[in-house]
Amino acid sequence: MNKAGQENRSVRNTKRRLREGLLKLMEEKPINEISVKELTDLVDVNRGTFYFHYQDIYDLLRAMEDEFFVQFDRTLTEHKPFSDPGKDAGTGTAVSPYLHAIFSFLYENRSFCRIMLSPHGDMQFVDRVKTRVDDQCRYFWQILAPGADELRYGIYNAFIINGCIGLIQEWVNDRRDLTVESISELTATLILASVGPCIS
User: For residues 118 and 172, is the Cβ–Cβ distance under 8 A?
Assistant: First the structure.
């Protein structure tokens, strides 16, 4: 391996240790109580090295969240159903595989999600998740219930958004016995049942 390759590998390893260390500390306390010194001491990284990559603890957290959402958005885009509008509308045949892809991604990142959605997590992370759930709801709503009024949409959407966040929190914390397949099918059933009166 050449020198550049070794340096890149070293940088990746350093960033990985810092990120893993921050998550470990966030299991115990909120981020506003975590100092750069505490983190660098934990993972045995020089503080100068930390500041070479990040401005502060919040900058590190934001970088972690940004990386998560780049991958999450890719998952949403690559697996979005109804590329042929109206096909399988109102059934789980298109929704379930889509949710399976989403929950597979969340399962792969369950430790990160568990901490971000915990009392020591970041509300901005929660807001960014809600924004994406809202975007997906609007997409489905326009296909499954194109004639529904905005007021009704708002009520159902608030129900689905908060329900999905709560379901994800429950799953990554306490219900690991539920497989990706089970949680995907359950979520599809709940969502379609909740919007059923509007698409029938």
Answer: no
